[in-house]
Design brief:
Two copies of one chain form a homodimer. Chain A is about 35% helix and about 30% strand. Chain A is of the alpha/beta class and about 220 residues long. In chain A, helix 3 packs across helix 4 and helix 3 runs parallel beside helix 5. Chain A is globular and about 45 Å long. Chains A and B meet through helix 5 and helix 6 of A and helix 5 and helix 6 of B. The structure holds adenosine-5'-triphosphate (ATP) (2 copies) and magnesium ion (2 copies).
Chain lengths: ~220, ~220
């Protein structure tokens, strides 16, 4: 369902360039559960943004469900980001002037969902924020903001879930609950790619991809008995 | 050196109030190395902000080096924040229009340090960012931003270091390097309080304080053999 072919990403900076991705090749099948690990600055978020259609490669190709993304119109890309892909950002990217519940309802507005309030409240209650619905993002703890970002990404139950360090700001018990939610979604058929620095999180997936200096260096397959 | 006496913190919200801290009593001695753990939303960042003179209790007292903080002038508080306490924020709080090096030099400007550039570069090189000096914060990865926040907090070599989840966004190797730096500072005599969700980080300190629902519930002392 996801296919990256010799993908490169350069960021111009001053008179030079940062080569964030230097030829990435990756195939992800439908319903696969993949973890991406690697040193800070190695290109994980950059790769995830390309997968989420939030950024484009400098060169190389990205095929999503068999279709080349670089050929798509802005409307098609927006539709993918809204319905097909749920993205949990490393720095949450919540809308500061909306409440917690409103933030989670935003994707449901765009997809024309008829029962936004109930869907948003159910997700927020699951991640333990049922008592924070009317707070604004700057009235939340770091881990609470992260949980709102998770609820928002899952609002439209997208077939592909891309999570950039979804347990980085929460205690281990809350982290287990988040991983239980992702595990249940995986069982239901979703395709999930998680960037994580946490080995215990990575070991709950099926396949660990290790990135260094903008390239995939090795992969481990995980057998759950 | 740090003494909290029945400290409470209330946040008004809508028609109600969030009781973020509900009577916290804490004594930290000079050169102590303390970890603070607890569930997401339990009050850790709130407590750390009060310790760092970035916020004031709703009631109760905070004595720093024997002096009641609530009695201090704005100038005295600013001086404490600049020279006595180094604060590493959970969401970094970097200045977006300054470069990495300029961000780290800011505290050195305020303290009138005569050799800012060298101090900033040395710290940034230690945390592995010697090649990112001229980037702006939004041109960095999450973990790179975290490392700039660490370098900046340490610029004036403050006697008290308050770190809000300093390894949350980095891989384990980078995290070990950060902990090695904090460990070395502790050996040199600094007092360190780390909020963390990571047990391996907490076990490197001398004392683990566990918070739940705005109150300290238990403490563990760690004996290093
Ligand atoms: N400005 C604010 N207004 C209202 N409530 C707030 C505000 N800031 C924090 N809170 C609430 O106070 C509680 C404690 O927040 P705090 O940031 O101290 O938690 P924390 O222990 O650091 O959590 P985390 O591990 O997720 O970072 C949270 O439940 C949060 O919703
Ligand atoms: N807008 C930008 N301009 C210039 N360089 C950038 C930009 N964004 C990222 N970079 C650089 O590209 C590299 C890869 O960044 P990326 O965010 O993908 O890393 P990461 O693997 O997610 O790191 P972390 O684990 O710290 O989150 C980093 O070295 C970073 O400095
Ligand atoms: Mg990242
Ligand atoms: Mg916090």
């Amino acid at each position: 369902v996801i296919s990256l072919d010799d993908v490169r990403k350069d960021y111009p900076i001053g008179t030079g360039v940062v080569q964030a991705l230097r030829g990435v090749n990756l195939e992800v099948s439908p319903n696969e559960y993949v973890a991406v690990m690697g040193p800070s600055g190695s290109g994980k978020s950059t790769m995830l943004h390309i997968l989420g259609c939030l950024d484009t490669p400098s060169s190389g190709s990205y095929r999503l469900d068999g279709v080349e993304v670089s050929g798509m119109s802005e409307i098609e890309l927006a539709s993918i980001r809204n319905r097909k892909v749920g993205f949990i950002f490393q720095s949450y990217n919540l809308l500061p002037r909306m409440t917690v519940q409103q933030n989670v309802e935003v994707p449901l507005v765009f997809s024309g969902h008829s029962d936004r309030s109930r869907v948003a409240q159910r997700l927020l209650t699951y991640v333990g924020l049922g008592h924070r619905l009317d707070h604004r993002p700057n009235q939340l703890s770091g881990g609470e903001q992260q949980r709102v970002a998770i609820a928002r990404a899952l609002a439209n139950s997208p077939s592909i879930i891309l999570a950039d360090e979804p347990t980085g700001s929460v205690d281990s018990l809350t982290g287990q609950k988040i991983m239980a939610l992702l595990g249940a979604l995986h069982k239901e058929g979703h395709t999930i790619v998680i960037v994580t620095h946490d080995e215990t999180v990575a070991r709950q997936t099926e396949r660990i991809i290790r990135i260094r200096d903008g390239q995939i260096k090795k992969e481990d397959l995980i057998v759950h008995l």
